[in-house]
Structure formats: C-alpha cells, structure tokens
Amino acid sequence: MLKDWAKNKRLESYVVTAIPVGHLLYVGFNVVTPDETFVGSVVVSIERSTLATTVVYESNEPMVDYVVDGEGWHCLLMESCVVEIGPGAKPTVMKNLPTGLYRMAGIGKRRVAICGDDGQVLTYEATKLKRLSVTTGPKSDGVEDLRAIAFDGSEIYVVGGYGTLSAGATKLVPRWGKENPFTVPNGRSIVFSVYASKTEIVAGGDHGIVAASPKGSTSWKHLTGLPNDVKVFAIVEFKGKMFVSTEENGFYLRSGTKLKRQKGEAGGYRMEANADVLASSCGSFVYLFDGKAWTRLRLNPNPKKLVEKIKLDF
User: Fold this and answer.
1) Is the pLDDT of residue 195 over 70?
2) Contact predicate 165/159, CB 8 Å
3) 167: pLDDT confidence band, cut at 50, 70 and 90?
4) Which of 68, 91, 153, 164 is 20 to 30 A from 125 via CA?
C-alpha cells in the first residue's frame, strides 16, 4: 500500500500515538486525503538516533488505538477488529469487534483493556474478549461514553462522562466519595485523560479541570493553573516530573498542586514516555523531548521518506 500512496503527494498522515521503547519509537498513524477521506493505516518502528524506519504493519482499515510492550508485542485496535503481532510472528486478527471502542491500555503480559461508548469496558487476551460490568453510582443519570483508560499494575482506571472509575477483576465502580470532583455548575466535566502514577491517579477534562487522588483514597484535590475553557488531552510522567497537555498544543509542568505553562507549543492529544524521551503526538507530527530540548518529526505516507526531522514550529 505504501508504494501506491507514494504516487499521491497530497495524502496526509494523522498520528494515533507514538510510543518510545528503548532506543526505538513506535508510531501508529492513519493516512487520509486532503478532505479527510480515509486511505489506510500503518505502524512503523523508528530508530531514534538515525531515523531508520521499518514498517511493522499496514492495513486498509482505520486504526483507533495502538499499544506495544518492551518485548515487541504489538496490539492494534482497528475499526472492526483487534490485530495482535508477537515478536517475529505473523499478525493474528480477532474479528467481530463491538462498535464504538475508543482507547486501550496494556494491563499485563500480552493483555489489554479497552473502553468506549455506552460504558463499554473489555479486556482482550489471546483473541478473546471479556466484558466488565460498569456501576456508575446513584448520582449517574445513565451509562455514558468512556474516553481514556490507564493501568497501575493492579487496577484499571477509566474516565469519561461521569468522572473516574476504578476496576477490580470484573466490575467498575465510581472512584470518588460524596462529590464527583468533575462536577461543574451546568453538569459534569467530560474527562478525556487519566494517568496512574505510583502514588496517585490524575485525571483531566474540559473546563480546564485536572484533579489528583492518592492511591487507596476516594478524595480528590484540584490542580490549578489552566484556563477554564480548555480540554486536557493527555497526562504523563517523565524523569520524575508530571506534564499535562491541552488543546491548542498547551504544555504544562506540574509543581505541587499548580500547573505552569512551558515554553513552546508541543502539547499533543497523546503523550507517552520512557526513561529517555517523552513523545507528544499532534496531527502529522511527533514532538520528542529529552528533558532539555525538543525534536520535531513528521510522518509521511511515502516509503521513500516515512519520517523526517523538520524545524521546530515554536
């Protein structure tokens, strides 16, 4: 497919997510026409030091989300199926996937949890899906869409229209006490992002709301410093510091209960990090931060130049 795309110079890429693993950067992206008609999807691995690129997987189906572990096990959430690729193995495809799935997270060796519309939460392992039940509590006015998911090594955390839920083995329940921390005067903030650190759960939504809760507690504390008209798209820890990204490419550093905007506009709708680098995804670009400086990469639907380093735009 990539060879065919090379003939059309008007095609564009939209990065789904970029995940640093060791010295590699794995990137999943969709390819569209200028009017955003879908064309295909690709996963590539990039050697960060040389930008040497290898195609991991190509598809004619839209990619919704993507995870990869440290052993090179890949799991792709596609529009109608889950694709699993083990190290050195051929892809395994599980079809007949429920509709409306949105985001997934790794939850252990070759297992993922997936969330989506209408309160759907499922786990996937070895081509089998298991559905978790969802309890939203007495104040909920119905099952709502779930927008992000995280795992802390023992519990699954899911966020969406009703704030934050945590899961045991088979059931999700509200993770707050008497008051939902994402309540706003005209209802509830929609929560778009969640991050599970070693000591706390941090979630962010629209209305500029970011709140943190210690592990094992149902109390929440709001973090300040964001405009009240922005959406929080991603939260990540990197080199012992927590970063938050918002719409309009805002990039904030947490200090205690305050968030301070950083120089530049590299905040993306997805952020992932390992010990060496933070990767922020936005449009056709992946911004890499090593703790001191930024690098900007552009993903291209062209096999002759799949990735290129370009000048920073800030």
Assistant:
1) yes
2) yes
3) low
4) 164
Sequence ranges of the domains in the chain: 98-223
Q: Is 202 helix (H, G, I), strand (E, B) or coil?
A: strand
CATH topology of domain 98-223: Methylamine Dehydrogenase; Chain H (2.130.10)
Cβ-in-10-Å burial (0-12, 13-18, 19+) of 127 comes to exposed
Q: Where are the beta strands (DSSP E) in 36-136?
A: 38-47, 53-59, 63-68, 74-78, 82-85, 92-94, 101-106, 111-116, 121-125, 128-131, 133-134
Q: What is the pTM of this model?
A: 0.93
Which of 67, 87, 81 minimizes the C-alpha distance to 151? 67
- Phi-psi map region of 236: left, alpha, beta (phi>0 left; psi -120 to 50 alpha): beta
Question: What distance in Å separates the CA atoms of residue 47 and residue 181, rounded to the nearest whole number?
Answer: 42
- C-alpha closest to that of 44 among 63, 255, 207, 263: 63
- Region 41-53: mean pLDDT is 97
Count of CA atoms in the C-beta half-sphere (13 A) of 177: 9
Q: Return the top range by mean pLDDT from 161-170, 171-180, 299-308.
A: 299-308
Torsion sign, CA atoms 90, 91, 92, 95: negative
pLDDT in tens, 243-296: 999 988 899 999 999 999 998 778 899 999 999 999 999 999 999 999 999 999
3-state DSSP assignment of residue 249: helix
* Integer Cα distance of 274 and 154 in angstroms: 20
Q: Where are the alpha helices (DSSP H) in the chain?
A: 2-5
List, in order, residues 6 or more apart from 217 with CB less than 8 Å away. Answer: none
Three-state DSSP class for residue 32: strand
